[in-house]
Amino acid sequence: MTKTQSPAAHSGPQVAVEFRALGPVEAMIAGRPVDLGAPKQRTLLALLVSQVGQPVTVDVMMEALWAGHPPPSAMTSLQAYVANLRKLLEPDRAPRRPATVLRTCTQGYLLDADATDVDAHRFVEHAKAGWQARGQEHPQRALSEFEAALALWRGQAYQEVAAVPCVVPEVARLQELQLSVVEMRCAALLDLGANEMAAAELEAFMKANPLREYGCELLSLALYRAGRQADALEVLQTMQIRLTEELGVDPRMALQHLRRKILNQAPSLDRHPTPALPDSAGSSRSAAPQQAGSAGLPPAPDADGEVFVGREEALRQLTKALAAAQAGRGRVVTVSGEPGAGKTCLLRRFAEPTGVAVLWGTCTEHVTAPSLWVWEQVLRAAATAFPQHSIPRPVSELLDGDTQRPTDGAEPPGAALRRFEAIVQYLTGLSRTGPLVVMLDHLHRADPGSLRLLAHLAESVPASRLLLVVSYRSHEAPVLAETLAALARGEMTRLELEGLTPQDTQALASAILRREISSHTAEGLCARTDGNPFFLREMIGLLTDDQRLDDPRAAPVPVLVREVVLGRIARLPRSAVEVLSVAAVVGRHFDIAVVADLVPVGIDAALAALDTAIAAGLIMEDQRRLGWFRFTHALVAEVLYETTGRLRRARLHRWIGAAAGRAGATERAAERAARTARHLLPATEGDPATATRASLSIGG
Questions:
Q1: Of 110, 313, 511, 637, which is the most buried if we count CB atoms within 10 A?
Q2: How do beta strands 492-496 and 466-473 pair?
Q3: Torsion angle defined by CA atoms of residues 320, 324, 326 and 329, in that order, rounded to the nearest 10 degrees
Q4: Contacts of 67 (CB under 8 A, 6+ apart)
């Protein structure tokens, strides 16, 4: 059998049978198709192919072949199917010689992974080779790999057994991966400047898959580069409406930033072609060596006027942790903060001048990646930064795609532990020659397998020269509770990024506007945004005249900030949105009793609604006044206030005034009653109830 091997495909012994499972199941021996016989026999083979290398029990086979209702002769029929398949798959096998392709095992039957080749596995290998090539700025090679991957598809994966419970997760994984490869192929076309071709293919793709946000991003970029700016903006607007109306969520930040860049015709949107390199197996090793501290780092900020200010204490803590790692006392540092707090910018700022190797991994958002994908990025960066060190076999298999890994990380415990141990030994071994920094960004998006490996590595960090830095969103901490607990068992430093100070805000605004701004303006900006760097940058962009510089409160809420806030609010239950809308009219600080009276709902229902808003990071409880709450950002209250109709706001203001008056009168009456009760207490023989009734009768 002759076939083209991709750079990612592993070399090994010649396989006996090639299976095609990305469509109706087919088998090829010596390049010739095999007649697989009756439908149930084909179904049995498809089931075995879907689990290649793993035992398939008789019970599972019965379920797949007879839908849980096997006839009395089912076992006889099953044995006949197995015997027929063995003859078909090994036509030259001598009588009484053990089968080597379809083997018997204690649990049932299995297809030997070493004697077979499955197109579904080659599809994944091509896809990963394409991702790697594109990451190394080899767009032509990436395009070839993605096209080779897609060419393997002939229909639904494992078509005959796609509904069998044990096959459903693999079918879903492959289908999602196929969509991602289509998107990445179009991204490679954009890298090569084929804007019109990419736009045409993406338009058809988005009609079939209208909720794919990364596809929308690529289509908008392709249309913009093809000179169709209005169409690009319309695509983004359509996606925003669709996500809001159908799913109740806001577009991801990348789409919102892209919209702003298209409106501003940002130079960073223009194509910067990468020269095509020879597509050879060793070309990745022939690239210019990276400087220490830059292996695997994300690209530097583009020309959007981004400026880094502040965070001196966080940088000091990171530097202190690195010094400890250099002395042989490895450390773990967690960096958390709300969306837009600048976690990635902080890590990038710290990594640039360290002078040591930094291995960077980012958990993906726009595509469904295989298990341990973030660690693949780290390990590839390690192989690039330390080419003189040999790579352990389990690590090499992981990088070459020789290891099957379910997306949920579920696999035999022994196999996972051996792989984890090999990775830990590899990374800690690299740190023996000098300190090594491993950074994992956006940890809240990590798959379960990656989190387990992180916890396993953390156990070995204190005795190594590793500095392990992870970042995540604060409100996503509950999903990371188990992992964070494991990290805390070692030497860990927690960094929580708060808002920028007025001094940092002044420096940021002066740098962006290229003029000195006053401390008064900086304090106004800081008060309105609570120092959130994302909110600040958007607000600063609106300070286009002296009037707004003198009073930043006069500037409207930036469009992008408004969309982000409304998107976060849209995820809340309707009852919570109603309570927050009324609370925003009351003010940034509000008494929940007043709000509950105005909605109107009971106080318990109002508090339950606030619980969801607190979990979403939109509301905080006032620790000094019982029953009082406040919006975490003034801009959140502003957006809610502006989205409430004028007539309703006016009516609410009247009701708020009346409610406040009633509350004040009740409080004053209670105070008078208490004073009178204290005065009457001796005359009523010390009975407080009698004293209170007497005081109320006097007051009445």
A1: 637
A2: unpaired
A3: -160
A4: none
Instruction: Tally the C-alpha atoms within 13 A of residue 48's C-alpha that lie toward its C-beta.
Output: 29
Single-letter residue type at 294: S
- The helix/strand/coil state of 628 is strand
The first and second tokens of residue 403, run together, are 């290891």
Please tell me the total number of residues recorded for the chain in this structure: 700
pLDDT at residue 261 tops 80: yes
Helix (H) / strand (E) containing 436: strand 436-441
Between CA 55 and CA 62, with CA 60 as vertex, the angle to 5 degrees is: 125
Mode of pairing for the β-strands spanning 357-362 and 26-29:
unpaired
Residue 309, burial from CB neighbour count under 10 angstroms (0-12, 13-18, 19+): buried
3-state secondary structure 107-158: CEEEECHHHEEEHHHHHHHHHHHHHHHHHCCCHHHHHHHHHHHHCCCCCCEC
pLDDT reported for residue 489: 83
Q: Tell me, what DSSP letter sits at residue 556? A: P
DSSP character for 443? Answer: G
Which of 451, 305, 284, 450 shows the shortest CA–CA distance to 380?
Answer: 284
In angstroms, rounded to a whole number, what is the distance separating the alpha carbons of residues 630 and 657?
Answer: 19
The two structure tokens encoding residue 123: 């599809």
| Cβ atoms < 10 Å from Cβ of 699 | 10
* Percentage of residues of the chain with pLDDT beyond 70: 83
Q: Which residue has the tokens 């396993």?
A: 456
Got the DSSP string for 606-627?
A: HHHHHHHHHHTTSEEE-SSSTT
At 57, is the secondary structure helix, strand, or coil? strand
Q: Concatenate the DSSP letters of all residues of 360-400 into one string.
A: EEE--SSS-PPTTHHHHHHHHHHHHH-TTSPPPHHHHHHHH
Residue 212 in tokens: 């794919």
> Which residues does 80 contact at the CB level (< 8 Å), separation at least 6?
none
Number of neighbouring beta carbons within 10 Å of residue 599: 16
Q: What is the pLDDT of residue 677?
A: 44
Query: Does residue 406 contact residue 173 with C-beta atoms inside 8 Å?
Result: yes
Identify which has the larger pLDDT, 558 or 325.
325
CB 391 within 8 A of CB 469: no
The two tokens of residue 61 are: 């086979």
Pairwise pLDDT comparison (43 vs 673), residue with the higher score: 43
Spatial neighbors of 650 by CB under 8 A, at least 6 apart, are none
Per-residue pLDDT at 278: 34
Residue 245 CB partners (closer than 8 Å, separation 6+): none
Cα 231 to Cα 191, 219, 270, distances in angstroms: 20, 10, 17
CA-closest candidate to residue 309, choices 133, 509, 445 = 509
Render pLDDT for 225-247 as a digit per residue (tens, 0 to 9): 888 888 899 899 888 888 877 77
Is the pLDDT assigned to residue 222 strictly greater than 90?
yes
Please tell me whether residue 313 adopts helix, strand or coil conformation. Answer: helix
d(CA 230, CA 193): 20
Q: List, edge to edge, every strand of the sheet that includes 331-337.
A: 357-362, 436-441, 466-473, 331-337, 492-496
Sheet with strand 116-118: strands edge to edge = 32-33, 26-29, 17-20, 116-118
Task: Count Cβ atoms within 10 A of the Cβ of residue 675 and give its class: 0-12 exposed, 13-18 middle, 19 or more buried.
Answer: exposed
Residue 474's contacts (CB-CB under 8 Å, 6 or more residues apart) are: 336, 337, 338, 496, 617
Helix 533-540 × helix 502-513 angle, to 10°: 40
Order across the sheet with 589-591: list the strands: 589-591, 628-631, 619-621
Identify the DSSP state of 103: E
* CB 191, CB 274: distance < 8 Å: yes
> Rounded distance, CA 8 to CA 380, Å?
13
